[in-house]
Amino acid sequence: MALVELSVVEQRYHAVIEVLSGVKVTEVAARYGVSRQSVHT
Hints:
single chain, mainly alpha, 3 helices, 63% helix, globular
């Protein structure tokens, strides 16, 4: 499988979808390398 580079907007979109689907904010933040506060905004 080839690596795909995502834009910041796409990364934020995927993070929001993950949180809305029930993944903990802490887990999403760790996966994307950002703070929990960044995921909440």
